[in-house]
Amino acid sequence: MTLVSKRYEVADILAAQEFCHSRNWTDGLPVVPPTPEAVEACLDWALLPAEHLVGVEPVRERAVTAEKLAVNAVMAGCLPMYFPVVVAAFTAMLEEPFLMHGATASTGGCAVLTIINGPVRNELGMDGTFNALAASDRATTCIGRAIRLVLCNLLDARPGDVDRSTLGHPGKFSYCLAEDEEHMPWPSLAEDRGIPSGTSALTVMAAGAPRQVMNEWTTHPEEILDTFVAEMKANMRHYSIWPGNYAIVLPPQLRAHFAKAGWSRRDIAQYVFDHARIYRREWIDVGKAAVVGRHGDQQYAAIPDPEHLLIIAAGGPAGGFGAVIPPWLGQKSKAVTVAIGACVDCAPPDA
Amino acid sequence: MPIEMLDPTHEADAARFTLASRLPALAGKTVGVISNGKRNTSPFFDAFEHALVETHGVTDVVRRTKSNYSAPADANLVEEARTWDALIAGIGD
Fold first, then answer.
1. By the CB < 8 Å criterion, does B16 face chain A?
2. Confidence band of B13 (pLDDT split at 50, 70, 90)
3. Which of A11, A60, A102 minimises the CB distance to B70?
């Protein structure tokens, strides 16, 4: 295998850290030195040649090759078996509806939320239960970090460079979770978005920080969802009124109430669509009267239709804690779901 | 023990981008100004247009706005820009 990346020799592991930090190649945390052997192991696992073109970032016309993804994946701590997920993430992010440049450059400061579904979760030891949104396991942590390092190193989305985020949020370190498919009453998120059952897949979303909510004081689905809806409406008042993909994270304790009541994903999404709405005049109450204008009586829905709500089953077994994850900005970026490890361009042998 | 490691950046890709050649003078030229569409570009570009015409003698200032401030300029805009002598893109946050 021929690797084209420039090679450097450093004295030892500590020198490697300082070498990478001095070149602004890190997120501030230590990295694994991307040796040729480690990079080749990633490419071998994914059965990808180094020069394989995953895609081209359209604004700066920058090639995203398998080799460069692998270099950054190794630095982020990925094992070779994680690498196909990193490739799939960039396959999804390079789809035009995701609008990767805008999402990674915006002052709005979103991060790339990645939700994993299918058998790959168990193969890689992912855990969508305890602490699901924050370093619950090695695989999701490293994969999420790899996405960020690629954005920084390959696409220059470093703070103050292409990344113009005013604040950003901690999800920029790593924002990846596996859905808790073993303990959910519905088909998985990926299946809901058209991926066949039993196929590993991921969904990427340009996402704000998770806004945690809690309601342990009811068993009624409507009242549980009213808590989530209230948080979505707060986001519409305080951040952005524009409809887009919202994600809600439902823990087992709350999912049990929906299951007992016979509520499906569709039922939940429809309820949220019907109720997560505000009038523009509500901006007067939160200091935004200047932009209400003549549109005060115009009503806005948080999601343009029920399909735009990503319902994620995740979280530890105890506690009525959920989360609302708002979109970066309306529909400028759309969530994208792709299968992992599937070559959509590969023709069957006799085609 | 020495460690050999690979460069994680785009390397050669970066050299592909160079600054556009400069016009010797703006007088008598057509200058396009593309706004990203945010409202604060309007007053700024109004003043900018005035300065281009009154101070630098620009003949014509063509004002255009992208349809999506977070996405690349629309294809028809890029095509139209080829007819201008100079182009300035600006954002307004």
1. yes
2. low
3. A102
Is A114 among the domain residues? yes
Residue ranges per structural domain of chain B: 26-90
CATH for B26-90, options being 3.90.1530, 3.40.1710, 3.40.50, 3.30.70: 3.40.50
Tokens for A77, please give them: 């701590």
ipTM of the complex: 0.92
CB-CB contact of A190 with A199 (8 Å): yes
Q: Do A71 and B8 touch (CB under 8 A)?
A: yes
Q: Is residue A8 part of a domain?
A: no
Closest to A187 (Cα-Cα) out of A319, A312, A322, A337: A312
A99/B70 CB distance under 8 A: yes
- A9 in B contact zone (CB under 8 Å): yes
Chain B contact for A39, CB < 8 A?
yes
Is B93 at the interface with chain A, CB within 8 A? Answer: yes
Integer Cα distance of A269 and A265 in angstroms: 6
Domain membership of residue A99 as a residue range: 13-339
Query: What does the pLDDT look like over A118-173, one tens digit per residue?
Result: 999 999 999 999 999 999 999 999 999 999 999 999 999 999 999 999 999 999 99
Query: Is A63 part of a structural domain of the chain?
Result: yes
Helix/strand/coil percentages in chain A, nearest 5:
40, 20, 45
Structure tokens, A242 = 């524009």
Question: What are the CB-based long-range contacts (under 8 Å, 24+) for A14-20?
Answer: A15/B3, A16/B3, A16/B5, A19/B5, A20/A75
Judge whether A81 lies within some domain.
yes
Which of B1, B9, B40 has the highest number of chain A CBs within 10 A, making it the mutation to test binding with A?
Answer: B9
Cβ <8 Å between B2 and A11: yes
Split into its structural domains, chain A has a count of 1
Per-residue pLDDT tens over the stretch B14-32: 556 677 888 999 999 999 9
Give Cα A45 to chain centroid, integer Å.
Answer: 23
**DSSP string for A38-50:** HHHHHHHHHT--T
CA atoms within 13 A on the CB side of B64: 22
B54 inside 8 A of chain A by CB: no
Task: Please report, to the nearest 10 degrees, the dihedral formed by the alpha carbons of residues A225, A229, A231, A233 taken in order.
Answer: -170
Residue pointed to by tokens 């030892």: A12
Tell if the CB–CB gap between A36 and B4 is shorter than 8 Å.
yes
